[in-house]
Amino acid sequence: MGLGREDLLQVYYFMRLTRAMEDRTRTLFLQGRVVGGVYTAQGHEATTVGAAMMLGKDDFIVPQHRDLGMHLVRGTSPRAVMCQWLARGNSPTLGRDGQLHIGDIHHGIAPSISMLGESLPVACGIGLTMKMRKRSTIVLAGFGDGAANTGPFHEALNFASVQKLPIVFLIENNGYAYSTPNNKEFAIENLADRAVAYGIPGETVDGNDVLAVIEAVERAIAHVRSGKGPALLECKTFRVRGHSEADKADYVPKELLAEWLKKDPIQRFERYLSEQGILTPENKAEIEQKVKAVVDDAVRFAEESPAPDPATVADYIFAPDGPIAIVGEPGASDSHYVNAIDTRTGEPFTTISNAPAQLHAPKTVPEEVGRR
Amino acid sequence: MGLGREDLLQVYYFMRLTRAMEDRTRTLFLQGRVVGGVYTAQGHEATTVGAAMMLGKDDFIVPQHRDLGMHLVRGTSPRAVMCQWLARGNSPTLGRDGQLHIGDIHHGIAPSISMLGESLPVACGIGLTMKMRKRSTIVLAGFGDGAANTGPFHEALNFASVQKLPIVFLIENNGYAYSTPNNKEFAIENLADRAVAYGIPGETVDGNDVLAVIEAVERAIAHVRSGKGPALLECKTFRVRGHSEADKADYVPKELLAEWLKKDPIQRFERYLSEQGILTPENKAEIEQKVKAVVDDAVRFAEESPAPDPATVADYIFAPDGPIAIVGEPGASDSHYVNAIDTRTGEPFTTISNAPAQLHAPKTVPEEVGRR
Amino acid sequence: MSEVTYLEAISQAIREEMRRDEAVFLLGEDVGTYGGAFKVSAGFLEEFGPERVIDTPMSEAAIIGSAVGAALMGMRPIAEMQFIDFIASGFDQIINMASKMYWRSGMPVPMVVRGPSGGGTKGGPFHSASPEAWFFHTPGIKVVVPATAYDAKGLLKAAIRDNNPVLYLEHKLLYRMPELREELPAEDYVVPIGKAVVRREGQDMTILTYGAMVHQSLKAAQTLEEEDDLEVEVLDLRSLAPLDREAILESVKRTNKVLIVHEDTLTGGIGAELAAILSEDLFEYLDGPITRVAAPDAPFPYAPPLEAAYLPDEEKILTAARKLAAY
Amino acid sequence: MSEVTYLEAISQAIREEMRRDEAVFLLGEDVGTYGGAFKVSAGFLEEFGPERVIDTPMSEAAIIGSAVGAALMGMRPIAEMQFIDFIASGFDQIINMASKMYWRSGMPVPMVVRGPSGGGTKGGPFHSASPEAWFFHTPGIKVVVPATAYDAKGLLKAAIRDNNPVLYLEHKLLYRMPELREELPAEDYVVPIGKAVVRREGQDMTILTYGAMVHQSLKAAQTLEEEDDLEVEVLDLRSLAPLDREAILESVKRTNKVLIVHEDTLTGGIGAELAAILSEDLFEYLDGPITRVAAPDAPFPYAPPLEAAYLPDEEKILTAARKLAAY
Ligand SMILES: Cc1ncc(C[n+]2csc(CCOP(=O)(O)OP(=O)(O)O)c2C)c(N)n1
Ligand SMILES: Cc1ncc(C[n+]2csc(CCOP(=O)(O)OP(=O)(O)O)c2C)c(N)n1
Ligand SMILES: [Mg+2]
Ligand SMILES: [Mg+2]
Q: What would the mean pLDDT of C54-72 be, rounded to a whole number?
């Protein structure tokens, strides 16, 4: 692998930012300021951040509802995220949709929907396009143990394997689908074994150990990028909070929860970084300050943002006529293309951070950060 | 295993009957007497007949479009089948539907639809009922290699494995889904390997060797009947004719076809039976005569049957009110139950042969014919 | 007896039917240990055991398909969609397997598919569906939508006892609405499928509506009486398939003006079919254009100001009713 | 130039668009080696190669979902359903993924879902679907149904070039109908989505129809002229979403009587919406009840006598038209 000191601190920063964003979202929820339910992913940070950090500049993510970590690494703006939770009129969905149902295809992020599993066929379409356009880019598609039992999961993995599509299918097995524990969801030990059904490599890894995740994702990416087809990776983690903030999750055995809380991925990584002398009280404080500043900025921005205009309620049903750019090809961002800007508003898309005086890390990590 | 002489002749009889029924159907099609397309299964007979022969009296089948062999073994009336092809008013669907889309749940046959794969969740519902009602019966669900790539396949096998439902999932891998060869359908060698994805036993067997099929099905049934959950069995066979009679199938390499034609399951079984001295010119002639009589009778019956009455075109949308029997429980055939007779006509159901002077073998084989 | 909510009425219906008839069982995501996302089946697992209260994987086709298979066996499954929006993932089982089964085979499929529908709960585009239009257009499935606790219980019992697939749409905004609490009969009762009910009598105009919109319509009718001296009849359809043509025609024949109110989007909603029936059958009775108040032809939005603008309400009904009355 | 069939027109549209724009590609079951179940794409694999003519496994959700993903990437996928009936197995991808994408994200999804629809070919209940009602009710997807070879080509080109999901319903009874052969323009052309066309002018009555029923309606109109001295206007809707309200209202304002003919089942078909629009907007213009001729509310039957009884035809149109004319 060979991540350098700065890379590791970057990983740590994004894990902390993810956690802090979610903590603040929860506070906002308790204050009654969030619209609708809140789904967070405490415990997933090693998986979501670790995996996304391994992508190259032009790679794609197809994230799900608990993948804030992936989003942030790939450049989704914390402001956009907070605008989503607060249903602001300038959120990426213009207040039409909530949660992390956002993305910017020009920056390699496909927006998800609530129907879990249904993003996986979409990932195939992105992979097909890469194949048709002879690219060496890949797709990282995240989803839960629950989604692994849906029809679209099967159709997508099968189709991807036949077409040798460049997709890393990443199962974030957090032990439960809502209240339903793994043993009521499927009858096998490791979901990665499903790789056998598609003739693709499968691996199960400790999803709370960010270095292990990084290594496993690196292996999967190496396979996928070589043109040999998709790979399936299962990161075993745990949902240490309720399914949503409204769920007390008293169906989770206390000891099991306690055990997993002890395995908190951020604390573990912190310990490692400290032992290695990479994380010091000084740079830790710096990171915390930066994290706080980003979160504060996002919340402030969202709170100052306008509500959507009810007069627009019937608008934006159809995209206008005009040329469409093939995403990722030269000139694709030329504004004469209908998909180059947000034609609903006539403004640039707002999912990705692109404020010049941006508070947090650059929106894309250096190409293949792990490959030194 | 230990099938006796009579059992083996019975197997042979049903294989021959299946082939003869389809040959005749094809003739009728060429004469323009069949309504719509014709789907036959030359080459599948060892699989469909062999598998169905291993079921006990109260077991169920959930067959698909090429499973005439299963149907006939389990008692579906050749007359009913021919009435379907000729779209007669007294067909089991009253001319509403065609092909083998018929069944009689009281006799353990669930009717299929054209949407392949969708019968597998239905098989789960039958299995769940057996489990709830504490029965030792099982379900045999047949389907193609194509259906193994549908969402419902995955959802059904997974649900069945979690619930430990008594279902033998039988893939009839005939090399193609319409014009699409296995290698464009999936990226693995044996579809039975998909068992790994569900933690259930999987086995691949030569689907043109009826004795091998019988043994493998026996193993699968033993597992399933013991309460350990479902099993997946792949019978490798070949569709030696077109997808439908309208399909010349010139996409099938000639040598491949020739190879499989040589493996014809009936000829193979015939050779075996002759070598063993079980099939003699005398009893063979007798069987052929019986087969011909059954087919002739079925065709004659169908041809003499009335067309549906167009005045009924908007009828039969909803079942009437009244008590419903739980199928298979004592008294379930009492005619005060809405599901005991065909309330569309007020007559008994017609899928299963129950004419007193029945021409062919009894509608159910002795309980677990193979277990001696 | 105490007053119960709409949600408790649903819960009672299932529990009582499961006690009465061992053929009845419940399957769906999180219906067992958790008692359902909205706690409709809280305590059921303990009472009926895991074979009759089945926690399933996240597999809508398997849930609905299993219901079909069990129904063929003479069981009376209740398949829960955690939110009714997810019915789109098990759609084919309803359209091609369940709805055509009796017609094709003579074998009944007594099953219920139910789940929380409707908006007003900040659910956004994937948790606010009114999916009725796909299904009242589909021959072979019945569609019911209760508006009161009494109907919630009685219609669900009727649905469970029906020998056909029934889509039972419970409106989640009504689940715990205090105004809907009512005392229910101690004895067993059903509300027959296919029968509308007059919620308020009047002779100046008929409002045809159902579900949560019944309550908005009643408020509007009250205001119209108070402020406009109009006597507006409110007919709660309750059943969208089959429709109670008789009750609909009878009312409109008397009032000669008709306003249709539904939460589903305008184009191709049940209002379209009602308008078609009325304009064909009651052409000579109509003293004003058949008027529809419905959600705009847009997906269901998330932000509260958009949701408020999207959903029909008393205000919008009043505006339309006044225009129609003045015609 | 020679005359081409409706099927060849479809084939030409795809081929020309694939030549013109490398973003266009085709995926579906048996579309490659086999050239499609109806040979629409015969020869395409040879011309465009397996990356742009993709034989898929039998996986409708993967087919449609892949189309969505590629469309997000700026490609213009054409997803073929081998028979349009199978769209029910990929339903959620259309409803929740494709149709809401632009509205939610501002990112267009330029894709076509197409396949053989309609009856009259002895296809029975699973190969004769008219699925339009599920989709014209769904905001965010366009629905077109060509009735002629010219329109088949022009509408498909328009659909491929459209920046939104378009459901293109080709009627398989028309595929090779000799009467529909026509010479097509040598130059590139499109038929704009959302525009109806008058197929026959008249002032006594308007027939609103589309697809295969255009031809039955034209026959009926001819007979009505010859035998009843009636001038019946036949408006081919062509596009069911969006509807060409202007053309519809303009025609009915002139004729004052309207007969709606569709092959889809009656309840909740497009006829319902048309009746609702007309009875609301043209209340004062109607000189007779809005009349619908449609399939009965039953699944599509297999046996020829049933199929004949089921489908609207010249006879049924004549009966209804004469009754309406006499009103
Ligand atoms: C197709 C579908 N069915 C049902 C639901 C309702 N639902 C929301 S989250 C959830 C559990 C998801 O579990 P998993 O995939 O493991 O993701 P997790 O929430 O555990 O990260 C369910 C059943 C859904 N979102 N999508
Ligand atoms: C869900 C679905 N999609 C598409 C079709 C169209 N179709 C009919 S048969 C067939 C191939 C089926 O292949 P397989 O399952 O291997 O069965 P076989 O015909 O080879 O026995 C296809 C694609 C269908 N019947 N069902
Ligand atoms: Mg999970
Ligand atoms: Mg096959």
A: 98
Does D189 map to a domain?
Answer: no
Yes or no, beta carbons of B158 and C57 under 8 Å apart: yes
To test the contact with chain B by mutation, choose from C107, C160, C190 the residue with the greatest count of B C-beta atoms within 10 A, namely C107
> Which of the 8 DSSP states describes residue C77?
E
C239-241 and C142-144 beta bridge pairing: antiparallel
In a domain, D308, yes or no: yes
Residue ranges making up the domain that contains D237: 197-325
Could you give the CA distance from residue A61 to residue D303 in angstroms, rounded to a whole number? 51
Q: Show which subunits contact D, needing at least 3 CB pairs below 8 angstroms.
A: A, B, C
Beta carbons within 8 Å of D199's beta carbon, 6+ residues apart: D147, D214, D217, D218, D234, D235, D236
Interchain contact A87–C (C-beta under 8 A): yes
What ipTM is given for this predicted complex? 0.97
Signed CA dihedral, B104, B107, B110, B111: sign only = negative
Question: C175 and C261 share a domain?
Answer: no
Model confidence band, residue A112 (pLDDT cutoffs 50, 70, 90): very high
Query: Can you give the pLDDT at residue B354?
Result: 63
- Supply the pLDDT for residue C185: 98
Same domain, D221 and D127: no
- Strands ordered across the beta sheet of D197-200: D197-200, D232-236, D205-209, D258-265, D291-295
Residue A353 has a pLDDT of: 87
B166 burial type by CB count under 10 A (0-12 exposed, 13-18 middle, 19+ buried): buried
Task: Give domain status of residue C310, yes or no.
Answer: yes
Which residues have CB less than 5 Å away from ligand 4 (the ion)? B 144-145, 174, 177
Nearest chain A alpha carbon to B152 = A151
A145 lines ligand 1 (CB under 6 A): yes
Mean pLDDT over all residues of chain B? 94
Task: Report whether pLDDT(A358) > 70.
Answer: no
pLDDT for B353: 87
Quick one: D165 and D261 in the same domain? no
pLDDT tens profile D146-160? 999 999 999 999 999
Please tell me whether residues C156 and C255 are part of one structural domain: no
Predicted local confidence at residue B225, as pLDDT? 98
Active-site residues of D, by number, are 127
Domain count, chain C: 2
Q: State residue A1's pLDDT score.
A: 54
D19 with D87, same domain: the answer is yes
Mean per-residue pLDDT, D13-38: 98
* D222 & D177 share domain: no
Q: How far apart are the C-alpha atoms of D28 and C164, rounded to whole Å?
A: 34
Positions of chain B with pLDDT under 70:
1-2, 354-372
Is residue A360 over pLDDT 50? no
Predicted confidence (pLDDT) per residue in C80-101, tens digit: 999 999 999 999 999 999 999 9
- Find the residues whose C-beta lies inside 6 A of ligand 2: B 66, 114-117, 144-147, 150, 174, 176-178, 239, 243; D 29, 58, 60, 82, 86, 89
Confidence band of A3 (pLDDT split at 50, 70, 90): confident
Q: What CATH number did the domain enclosing D134 receive?
A: 3.40.50.970
Q: Which residue is associated with the tokens 């995403």?
A: A327
Task: Round to whole Å and give the CA distance between C312 and B94.
Answer: 45
Contacts of C44-52 with CB under 8 Å at 24 or more apart are C44/C14, C44/C15, C44/C18, C47/C15, C47/C18, C48/C18, C51/B131, C51/B132, C51/C25, C52/B132, C52/C18, C52/C22, C52/C24, C52/C25, C52/C26
* C171 flagged as catalytic: no
How far D267 CA sits from the closest chain C CA (Å)? 6
3-class DSSP state of D198: strand
Task: State in words which class domain A5-307 has.
Answer: alpha beta
**Of D158, D183, D208, which residue sits at a domain end?**
D183
Quote the ligand 4 centre to B143 CA distance (angstroms). 8
Per-residue model confidence (pLDDT) at position B370: 38
